[in-house]
């Protein structure tokens, strides 16, 4: 038996807190009866409806995916471009990405059918490190990148402090390889941060998410997270 709000969150309908609002607002039925008690528990055989629409109580699943470049971080695309769930045709659960990676960015992307887990990891106040490796135009120097450690202003809002490491420079090609560690997840954040210090990104890859890496995977491949990895992520994302 699981708490009703957790079942709704697992189904990807809403975060657990939003699900609680649905319950207290009388929008949820269990076996045809409106339920407003937050302590209500339901089993696999119970019929749960939100706004009159039945939800299916799938077992929660969690995947680590090596997203290739040129793939949309979504479950569908109106322009018929390739999306990440196209790689999961053999997975019966209705999974979706946790956060996103840009179309032309490769690397680690998590997918799940657990809405509560997704909301928790994606929330900006949960400071899980994400490590990116970028090929940039220009000669990277410590003094150039130093402002990122204090935060830079993008679209009127200052970013949280980041950590950087210069992996290599190519004076002849006038390019550099830079590793950047952040814990926020704004739209195009890494590209915008590096552009703000005069190093426009040519190629970008997310190498690490918390303690998770791409070890053993090639672009387009995925694996299930084990219990230890899931619990570690949840512990890292504690408020």
UniProtKB/TrEMBL annotation:
Domain RNA-binding S4 stretches: 2-65
GO terms for cellular component: cytosol
EC number: 5.4.99.-
UniProt GO BP: enzyme-directed rRNA pseudouridine synthesis
Top EC class of this enzyme: isomerase
Residues making up the signal peptide according to the UniProt record: none
InterPro entries found in the cross-reference section: PsdUridine_s_RsuA/RluB/E/F_cat, PsdUridine_synth_cat_dom_sf, PsdUridine_synth_RsuA/RluA, PsdUridine_synth_RsuA/RluB/E/F, PsdUridine_synth_RsuA/RluB_CS, RsuA_PseudoU_synthase, S4_RNA-bd, S4_RNA-bd_sf
Keyword RNA-binding: yes
Keywords: Isomerase, RNA-binding
Pfam families: PseudoU_synth_2 (PF00849), S4 (PF01479)
Gene Ontology MF terms in the entry: RNA binding; rRNA pseudouridine synthase activity
Family: Belongs to the pseudouridine synthase RsuA family.
PANTHER family according to UniProt: PSEUDOURIDINE SYNTHASE FAMILY PROTEIN-RELATED, RNA-BINDING S4 DOMAIN-CONTAINING PROTEIN
Official protein name in the record: Pseudouridine synthase
Species in which this protein is naturally found: Enterococcus devriesei
